[in-house]
Every structure is written in structure tokens, then in C-alpha cells.
Amino acid sequence: MEQKINFQKRLDEILEGIKESGKTPSLLLHSCCGPCSSYCLEYLKEFFKITVFYYNPNIYPEAEYDLRLSVQKKLIEEAYGKEVGLFTLPYDHQEFLDAAKGYEAEPEGGARCVKCFELRLKQTAKIAMEQGFDYFGTTLTVSPHKNAMVLNKVGHAAEDYLKTISSDDSISQPLWLESDFKKKNGYLRSIELSKQYDLYRQEFCGCEMAQRA
Questions:
Q1: What is the pLDDT of residues 154-207, one digit of tens each?
Q2: How far, CA to CA in Å, does 27 sit from each of 18, 44, 58, 110, 172?
Q3: Is 52 helix (H, G, I), strand (E, B) or coil?
Q4: Second label for 19, Cα 20 to 30 Å away, from 43, 49, 91, 182?
């Protein structure tokens, strides 16, 4: 049996170390949507200089992708202004379809979702390294439907992946920020903040397979 890890405790230890250092490291925070990022940003903003990375080629159709992106922009603009940055890539749903090929019939929360996590967190790690961020992480662990153990395992694998694509030892590689944002009532707080900022909350994860589930 895989040992259960308290990722919230680990995150608290990292944040305490940052606080004691007196420095403000940079964080590229992958976000699936505005509502999920709401609590994460509130929680992390005093410790990091944050740029939100909205990279979700799994979302279908494109109109839904655009709607969620607009909500992400709305939250950042209304709650943080220029304190929080936003970075995106062009919408390319085929990236997700390629990653999920052969796993289309998997149940929600199964192997297909892991492939989706791998796609998004590898890209987050890659962009974080290219742009010189100190840390990279994701808001996905705030959802009660997402397994923090799985996501942190994928996050660490993405951190290791960077070593295979960079031969330049002078390039500083970002660290994976462990998390389980649903702890400390994080998910409930995200609901409160969504109401406060009048944010659209979607009823499905994103891909067409999830809609059929």
C-alpha cells in the first residue's frame, strides 16, 4: 500500500521556510479555471510573485475554453490587478486528444485523467524553466474530485522531466510546489470567493469524455 503523505503539511513547511528567508520567489501556477485558482492565489500571494499559467487543451469545445479563460482574467484583474500575471498558449485541443489516445473509454478520474495531468504539468514545468521561475505548481489539488497523491506524483515527474530536456547546467530548474489545496477548507473558500467575484463555475472537468461520463 502506498504511504499516505500530508502534502498540506509539506506545503506549510515550504512556506515557512520562504517566510524566514525574507525572499519572494517566483511561481508559475498552472490553473484549470478562475474558481479553482481563487483560493490558491489568496493563500499563496504573500509568499510568491505569481504568474497564472492557463494551459488547458483538454477543455472542449473552444467556446468553453474561451469562457473559462475570460473568467480567469476577470478574477485576476478584479482581485489582484498587476500583482498577479497571466500567461497563456494558443488553444490546441489536438494536444489533449493525442495524449488521451487509447484512453478515451477510461472512467473519469482514471488513466485518461493522469495522461491529461502529465500533459499540462510537463508543459508548466517547461515554461517555468524557460522563463526562469523558481517554482511551478497547479491549482488542481483544490478540487475534491482530484487525487492529491496522483497530482503530486505527476508534478515531481514533470520536475524530473526537465533534467532530460536541458543539458545546460547553468539553467536553474524550477522546483515542484507540493500541495493539497482542498485542505484547510480550501475548496469551500473557493466557492465563497467565486460568489464574491461572481465567477462562472463549470459543471464538468473539461473534455468531451468528461461530459459523457
A1: 999 999 999 898 777 767 899 999 999 999 999 999 999 999 999 999 887 889
A2: 12, 9, 23, 28, 14
A3: strand
A4: 182
CATH number of the domain where residue 196 is located: 3.40.50.620
Question: Model confidence over 12-34: pLDDT tens digits?
Answer: 999 999 999 999 999 999 999 99
Would you call 127 helix, strand, or coil by DSSP?
A: helix
Total domains in the fold of the chain = 1
**93 in a structural domain:** yes
Look at the pTM and tell me if it is higher than 0.90. yes
Amino acid identity for residue 123 in this structure: Q
> What is the chain's alpha carbon radius of gyration, rounded to the nearest angstrom?
16
Place of cell 504511504: 3
**Which residue in 72, 115, 69 sits closest to 96, CA to CA?**
115
- Asked whether residue 54 is domain-assigned, the answer is yes
